[in-house]
Design goal:
Subcellular location (chain A): Cytoplasm
Number of strands of chain A: 27
Shape of chain B: globular
Radius of gyration of chain A: 38 Å
Number of helices of chain B: 9
Protein name (chain A): Striatin N-terminal domain-containing protein
Order of helices and strands of chain B: HHHHHHHHH
Main location (chain A): cytoplasm
GO molecular function, one term (chain A): protein-containing complex binding
Structural class of chain B: mainly alpha
Number of helices of chain A: 13
Keywords (chain A): Calmodulin-binding, Coiled coil, Cytoplasm, Phosphoprotein, Repeat, WD repeat
Structural class of chain A: alpha+beta
Oligomer: heterodimer
Number of strands of chain B: 0
Strand content of chain A: 15-25%
Chain lengths: 686, 187
């Protein structure tokens, strides 16, 4: 018929039996005005094509409208859900933060008690496991809370609030800091507490007096505070304030030493608030300034805490005095003196960094088995980062952070970049690998993150340029553009790094001292170098006159066996001291001027293989085949910390000789230490 | 030190698979059968893994030789062949990463089944390094091969443990080895 009916003929043919749609009739008639015959015909059948179309369109429009309405409703509901979820999350975070704080407080309390007990009785108080609280689980199951601690805990919380109020009043942080620092200094350096009582009395009395003065004001503030807030935990705190005030009043006058402790507890608490969870590096001053009795201010504070948490872990403090977290507080006091000293000793020699990729140098380096790679810090003594320096001086507890897996065979040596968080490892698999310590791949276990090497240097085929056998050690001086190498062929060679070809000078000791195993530049005298030999001697040479200056004292008889072999010699960065690591488990300290043995100690259970001194010259790190790395305080020559790292690898089964750690190193400017293992792993500690 | 030796004796008295392989290689690198034969009681997965590590290690030596020659301005001019040195590096780095990753190989004394399957793909990629070296840098390949017989070792290794199919072994030396497994002759 016509086009309109064309497609629709289909319809009228197909639903003769379809019922209903009586309403179509009149509709059809109205719509079919333009279609005379077709409309009439369709009306007869009670379904007209246009009518149907119209009906369908109408229905469809209706459905669309409804759907739009539903969509709108749905969106609204979803927005509401999101909002509620957000709120819930906020509440959870709030709860978590508060729980965290409680844990910090409990831990601080334990610290305090230990300290107090130690001072009082001279022995350690056995409190069980005293590790800093972990924040992964929200259950506070790692603390043993004794009944009497409860009141003290609330007391602490009260103290915290007090602090807050003091801030408001204007009794600034700095005044408290200065006073508590003095107190702390006194506390730290005296083992006899009673002598200082008087001084402390004065301090704390003035403190407590002013504290009491503020109390009246605070009580009224507390009253307001409790009125405004409805949260349970805030209410709890309000009760504790009242309790605190009574407790403080009772306690403050007769027992001022307690007050001092609480002041210190407050002090600690300030640290605790401003430190990140589990990470000792972040510091921010003035977190307390955001506190306030109002709930909104409280939330600001918590938001601040969260901000603090998000700071990158290696951000040094900006200007505030360094504030370690409570886990390091006991040592902090002892370190204050060290801190001052450290600042006055900028490193005197400029040593610099060798990149394996430097073609000229690369060809000088040793054998297929890279046994020696020496790199030391480049000291920008003028632009030295003081706060980073402080951190290094203060860092006392190191924790394993990264495990670098990529080498196929044992790692023989490692070196840090002078300024960047970059490590280079050299391995028996003939490669050097460069690692970026900041870009880490997340792994399941957070304790050991895997780091991918950025680049792998493959170039070593054999010794070149003068040495005829393996090069065991290198030492580089950027200030003088000199490279020193010692080799299994018995010679020590001095090179000019700008023109590589012939060695500047050769110290061919004619094998009289044996094979040099290790060499280092003497930091305190740039023209000297110290080398240790396989027969057990260590000598200092003058590089300019090419003469041996002196041989450091060593008690060896003529029938010396292999156990007197010296594995490593290093020069102290600031003092005229050389330190040697021996096969017979000893570490020995020698004076460079007299050659006398200053100190000798048995350091490990098996041969000591490697030594490293931290850039400030305060700590010595030694690695040994007994799988342990030990950190020593150079002043007291005592072991501060020990790590067990790297399982053993078997050498030839003939000798039954097990190797474990080949090298250790400090980062010159950042808080990293690394160890190189015979198990092809390098571990980095922070 | 007596103490050290005493304690050593008490521990595991058999060297690890890796040391065993390296010992045999050092002793005689042309005695391929000895190198490939696992000691009794050795888990096959671990054995394969350790061998693959050793191959990657030694292949670095080949890569070093190649990198001096494989430059844009040397023998082969077509640009698409030059990325071969990049491919070589990338493969070796990737293999190093894979073989050392704690995710796939958490322990060196037992290998997960799923990871064993992946060893084959590593072998294929490594094989391409060999074939490139053979076809484009024959002199270097030949010198290196005569030094340490690495290709022979590798081919026999993949054949023995069925890590790659024979079709993939396109380097035409060692045909007798490639044919020995099945008895059909390769074209």
């Amino acid at each position: 018929m016509d086009e309109q009916a064309g497609p629709g003929v289909f319809f009228s043919n197909n639903h003769p039996a379809a019922g209903g749609a009586k309403g179509l009739g009149p509709l059809a008639e109205a719509a079919a005005a333009g279609d005379g015959a077709a409309a009439a015909g369709a009306a007869r059948a009670q379904y007209s094509l246009p009518g149907i179309l119209h009906f369908l369109q109408h229905e469809w429009a209706r459905f669309e409208v409804e759907r739009a309405q539903w969509e709108v409703e749905r969106a609204e509901l979803q927005a509401q859900i999101a909002f509620l979820q957000g709120e819930r999350k906020g509440q959870e975070n709030l709860k978590k933060d508060l729980v965290r704080r409680i844990k910090m407080l409990e831990y601080a309390l334990k610290q305090e008690r230990a300290k107090y007990h130690k001072l009082k009785y001279g022995t350690e108080l056995n409190q069980g496991d005293m590790k800093p609280p972990s924040y992964d689980s929200d259950e506070g199951n790692e603390t043993e809370v004794q009944p009497q601690q409860n009141s003290q805990l609330m007391w602490k919380q009260g103290r915290q609030l007090l602090r807050q109020y003091l801030q408001e009043v204007g009794y600034t942080d700095t005044i408290l800091d200065v006073k508590s620092k003095r107190v702390r200094a006194l506390l730290g350096f005296s083992s006899d507490v009673t002598d200082r009582e008087d001084d402390k009395n004065q301090d704390s009395l003035t403190d407590s007096a002013s504290v009491l003065d503020n109390f009246k004001f605070l009580e009224s503030a507390a009253a307001d505070f409790s009125d405004e807030d409805e949260d349970d935990d805030i209410d709890g705190r309000e009760k504790s304030i009242i309790d605190t005030s009574t407790i403080v009043r009772k306690k403050v006058l007769p027992d001022s030493s307690e007050d001092r402790d609480t002041k210190e507890a407050l002090k600690e608490f300030d640290f605790l608030v401003t430190s990140e969870e589990g990470d000792n590096d972040s510091r921010s001053a003035g977190d307390g300034t955001d506190w306030g009795p109002n709930r909104s201010k409280l939330q600001d504070m918590l938001a601040n805490l969260r901000d603090v948490d998000e700071l990158p872990s290696l951000q040094p403090s900006v200007g505030s005095p360094s504030r370690p977290s409570s886990s390091r507080l006991p040592e902090h006091e002892i370190n204050r003196a060290d801190e001052v000293e450290a600042l006055t000793f900028p490193p005197s020699s400029g040593k610099s960094f060798i990149m394996g990729a430097d073609e000229a140098l690369e060809s000088e380096l040793g054998l297929g088995e890279l046994a020696g790679l020496t790199v030391a810090n480049e000291a920008d003594s003028l632009t030295y980062d003081v706060s980073a320096n402080n951190k290094d001086a203060l860092r006392k507890t190191w924790n394993p952070k990264f495990t670098l897996r990529s080498h196929f065979d044992g790692i023989r040596a490692l070196a840090f970049h002078p300024t960047e968080p970059v490590l280079i490892t050299a391995s028996e698999d003939h490669t050097l690998k460069m690692w970026n310590l900041q870009k880490t791949a997340p792994a399941k276990k957070s304790t050991s993150l895997d780091v991918e090497p950025i680049y792998t240097f493959r170039a070593h085929k054999g010794p070149l340029l003068g040495h005829t056998d393996a090069v065991w050690g290198l030492a580089y001086s950027a200030a003088h553009q000199r490279l020193l190498s010692c080799s299994a062929d018995g010679t020590l060679r001095l090179w000019n790094t700008t023109e590589v070809a012939p060695a500047l000078s050769v110290f061919n000791d004619n094998q009289e001292l044996g094979v040099p195993a290790s060499v280092d530049l003497v930091s305190s005298d740039p023209s000297h170098m110290v080398a240790s030999f396989s027969k057990g001697y260590t000598s200092i040479f003058n590089m300019e006159t090419q003469q041996r200056i002196l041989t450091l004292e060593s008690n060896l008889d003529s029938t010396a066996n292999s156990s007197c072999q010296i594995n490593r010699v290093i020069s102290h960065p600031t003092l005229p001291i050389s330190i040697t690591a021996h096969e017979d488990r000893h570490i020995k300290f020698y004076d460079n001027n007299t050659g006398k043995l200053i100190h000798s100690m048995v350091a490990h259970l098996e041969a000591v293989t490697s030594l490293a001194v931290d850039p400030n010259g305060l700590y010595l790190m030694s690695g040994s085949h007994d799988c342990s790395i030990r950190l020593w305080n150079l002043e007291s020559k005592t072991c501060i910390q020990e790590f067990t790292a790297h399982r053993k690898k078997f050498e030839e089964s003939i000798h039954d000789f097990e190797e474990s750690i080949h090298d250790v190193a400090f980062h010159p400017s950042k808080c990293y230490i690394a160890s190189a293992g015979a198990d092809a792993l390098a571990k980095v500690f922070v | 030190m007596v103490m050290a030796e005493g304690t050593a004796v008490l521990r595991q008295n058999r060297p690890g698979a890796k040391q065993y392989i390296q010992q045999n290689i050092r002793a005689d690198c042309s005695n391929i059968d000895k190198i490939l034969e696992p000691p009794e009681g050795q888990d096959e997965g671990v054995w394969n893994y350790e061998h693959l590590r050793q191959f990657c290690l030694e292949l670095d030596g080949l890569a070093v030789k190649l990198q001096s020659e494989c430059h844009p301005d040397t023998s082969h001019k077509t640009p698409k062949e030059c990325p071969a040195i990049d491919y070589t590096r990338h493969t070796l780095d990737g293999a190093a990463c894979f073989l050392n990753s704690s995710k796939y190989f958490p322990s060196r004394v037992s290998i997960k089944e799923s990871s064993v399957a992946k060893l084959g793909s590593v072998c294929r990629r490594i094989y391409r390094i060999f074939s490139h070296a053979y076809f484009y840098h024959w002199q270097i390949f030949d010198d290196y091969e005569n030094e340490i017989f690495l290709y022979h070792q590798f081919t026999k290794f993949v054949m023995k443990y069925n890590l790659m199919s024979k079709d993939n072994l396109i380097v035409p030396i060692l045909e007798e080895v490639q044919n020995s497994g099945s008895g059909e002759s390769e074209a």
